[in-house]
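Consider the record:
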Amino acid sequence: MIIKPLHEPEWLCLIPRFQGEHAEKQHFENLVKGYEGELKFAGLLEEISDDWLILYDLRLEYRRTIFQIDALLISPKSLHLFEVKNFESDFYIDSGKWFTINGKEIRDPVLQLNRCEFLLRQLLHEYGFNIPIKGNVVFINPTFTLYQAPLDLPIILPTQLDRLVQQLNRSAKKPGIRDINLAEKLAGAHLKRSPYDHLPEYNDSELKKGIYCAACSSFSISLKSDQITIICGKCGKEEAADSAVIRTLKEFQLLFPEEKVTTNRVYYWCGEIFSKKTVRRVLGRNFVLKGGGGSAHYVDLRADLSNTGMRGK
């Protein structure tokens, strides 16, 4: 049973819009790769028993120290903590240190796991729970290879993933009220924002305008002759024009929460692919018009998107 699902991160919409070699582009591409690994692991865990209580992407705090758990499984007898890595290619361990095959030292993922496990144990004790924690670093990418690894490392290699699923199914036990209470307490303690979040500075001129494909992120979008459907020139996916405008507008609100939503601003942000008449019609159907003349703008009463933590300028 999934108690806290894995949500798509807000910053994901930034990636297709970075133009050229933006200083933050590589950093966020690495974050995307990590998220894709977590997504793949979540897909793998769809095969395990519903008796497991699962929490994904859990960010917690213990005595002013923040730590993040990629996946946590709760059962009556134990907790399974997983640190997911989407590393590609070959790595090796030498004298306890981790290196890429080219000799570049990287952060030891097992140390990251141990730190997380220690802090979780302390937090559980504070909550009044004394339950064993079994931690593992999961290497989800099938191209990953690790050389010279000690046999006792708490790691799960790509070739061992099927075995992990089998073991979890064999050891599944129906959760009790206390287990469910713990899962809900941890989910409730999740920090939506961390003071250490590193979000990029960006301005309007640095971001590509237009509507990108919801399937492949290509900007090769054109309006079909029916004037109510767009089509991607790269993958062929079609989408209703109204849906595309709303999707792109919500992204704009995430990136620039302080800016007012006007017909001209949305027309410009959508890359002028639709007429202003179409943009005005979509806004009128889905938003409430406030003010008049030069101060006229639209307000979305269905959701408060103003407190996102992203910093458009």
